[in-house]
Write a structure and sequence with these properties.
This protein has 301 residues and is an alpha+beta fold. 36% of the residues lie in helices and 24% in strands. The chain contains 7 helices and 15 strands. It has a 6-stranded antiparallel sheet with strand order 12-11-10-15-14-13. The longest helix is centred in the C-terminal third of the chain and has 46 residues. The chain is elongated, with a radius of gyration of 23 Å. The relative contact order is 0.10.
Length: 301
């Protein structure tokens, strides 16, 4: 559903928040908090309700709840003293008090492949990916070092670098996986939604998330719970794949760890751009050799 209040637009389907047309980045818990408050804006929402709906009943301190409320207020431009959007009701809870307009659902900017969303320009995206000649190549130490570092930084048991073509997510490098595991069908992967993003994408509990709870890797061993991935976006703006860390246990990443994952994604793209540059230079070299050969033939004729 899409809502508008003040100069804010909030889309629960695409998980987007925009202020005056500009995208605002918020954590998934803050997103879920806003959604629950808007959906129950006709009444005061208690602390226990928030814990049940946003934190799935886990033990959460008052400090954590206040921090998420304050983060939400900052995201929507609502000062704590003003409280023109989210009002604190002493000893009772919180209430969403801004005037809300329900908007018609937007025309989707994505297409579907076997029931999952894919970018509208997926054909061009795949063509761009193939220009790097990376698919189905052998493991390389430079990429393996990045996945190992991602796992170490995050504390997750598993990490990988993946690239998505028309039908699959192919794994260039893995950490924690059997060496024979190299790909997964696109519709069964954890990453289709990530390549629709431009920012770090974190799901703290995939087992209760409506988009992911029925995936084989979530329903079956190892029962994925925590997921964090950054899309690998090239200079043309195409998300070629992801760098991902995940774990079956309860996990979270602090701001420093999240920045490190973003940095590693940039390093992957640096390696890819170097690869494409080498391919381009080799093609030019071959063209020059062909030109020299033809010129010699003409001179000898």
């Amino acid at each position: 559903m899409r809502y508008r209040f003040n100069d804010i637009e909030f889309d629960t389907a695409s998980m987007e928040l925009r202020a005056a047309g500009a995208e605002v980045s918020i954590e998934p818990q803050v997103f879920d908090l806003l959604r629950y408050l808007i959906e129950n804006r006709n009444r005061v929402v208690t602390r226990d309700e928030l814990i049940s709906s946003v934190w799935n009943g886990r033990i959460v301190s008052e400090t954590t709840i206040s921090a998420r409320i304050n983060a939400l207020r900052r995201a929507v431009g609502d000062g704590g003293s003003n409280q023109g959007v989210i009002k604190t009701v002493p000893r009772r809870g919180y209430r969403f008090v801004a005037d809300v307009q329900r908007l018609p659902d937007a025309i989707s900017s994505v297409r579907l492949y076997k029931g999952i969303e894919i970018p509208a320009d997926d054909k061009e995206r795949v063509a761009s990916l193939k220009s790097y000649d990376i698919l189905d190549t052998d493991p390389e130490e430079e990429f393996d070092n990045i996945t190992a570092l991602a796992a170490q930084i995050s504390g997750c048991q598993f990490a990988y670098i993946s690239f998505c073509d028309e039908t699959r997510f192919w794994l260039k490098s893995t950490f924690g996986y059997p060496s024979t595991f190299r790909e997964r069908p696109r519709e069964l992967s954890m990453c289709p939604s990530t390549i629709l993003q431009t920012k770090l994408y974190i799901i703290e509990n995939m087992r209760v998330h409506p988009r992911y709870k029925d995936l084989p890797s979530v329903k079956n061993p190892p029962h994925t719970r925590f997921y964090c991935a950054m899309p690998l976006i090239n200079p043309e703006g195409h998300a070629l794949g992801t760098i991902c860390v995940w774990d079956p246990g309860q996990m979270s990443l602090d701001d420093h760890q999240q920045d490190c994952i973003r940095c590693l994604a940039r390093q992957v793209m640096t390696l890819l751009e170097m690869r494409r540059r080498i391919i381009d230079l080799q093609q030019r070299h071959d063209e020059l050799l062909d030109l020299v050969s033809r010129m010699k033939s003409l001179l000898q004729a």
